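Workshop exercise sheet. Pairs work together: one partner reads the sequence aloud, the other fills in the structure field after running the prediction. Swap roles for the next sheet.
Pair: D.N. / O.F.
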Amino acid sequence: MTIENGSPLKRGGKINWREFLGSTTFIEARNLTHLVGCERLFLKFEGGNPTGTQKDRIALAIVENARSQGAKAVCAASCGNFGAALAWAARIVDIPAHIYIPHGYHVPKDRMKRIADARAELHFEPGQYEDLVELSSKIAEEQGWYNANPGTPGVKEISLDAYGEIAFEIYRDIRRAPNFVFCPVGNGTTLAGIYQGFKKLYDTGKIPTIPRMVATSTRRGNPIVKSFKMNSRIIKDLAREEVKETKFNEPLTNWHAYDGQEALDAIYESNGFADYASEAKMMEFNKQLRHEEGLHVLPASASTLAVMNDLADSKVTVKGTFVAILTGRDFE
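Structure field:
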């Protein structure tokens, strides 16, 4: 199957999103290994997906499900990345998309351009991201639209399954499981899905152990990391005032993580951990990735290397194979 120039796919044919998504860049970062303090470092760069993030993996699977149900439109709240991915995917299957963005958020220009180019309808509303998830979910129910928001029954399962493909691709490339997988977390869906993928590999006997899953995020508001640091096995929401968004950390901030319990379970079950990265460290490794490996990533995703660097001497074993999940972005 081919999709040319983002043109809509005629209704009727089933999309196999794995045919043209994923299989993203996976490289050994020898130039960065000494900077982060680990024995072997691999980078899984999700910037090779059509809109430049891992969100494309779930977006097309979600809109295919929406189309199979005869949905009139799809809608979701977003801080930029998922909105761009959903708008792109909805355009492919010729379903209208409605993207709800918190008024005043620092949405990158390339994300806005992609949403506009895909002819999705943008709705800027007051409130935080979680408020707009609630608002857009209510509107979806009233209008008969497909609710693509995280945490929605059906969407959760589709998303976890799609992100599990990242684990399969890592295994395919190195023919074994790494010792550690560092993943940036906001809602926690990506980390939980990758863990689920490795668990399937373990359950089928393809790998002898599951990697230790490491969640990385901002100091300015993430319930997954805070819950772990409180030694809680149950995800706990933050107070709204704990969240402090900036143009660098918005993909990581929230007071309620919709798939946070699944992510927290993955961390504990894999004997992993979670920690914060400072914005200064994110920007430092954002630049290092560009200079040393030629990868243009979101500063938020560089939290993986920042935490790796901060914790290598005390909380993780230097020996072993480390994988960092990185999200790309377009040039502005």
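Discussion prompt: Residues 155-174 form the longest helix (20 residues). What would you look at next?
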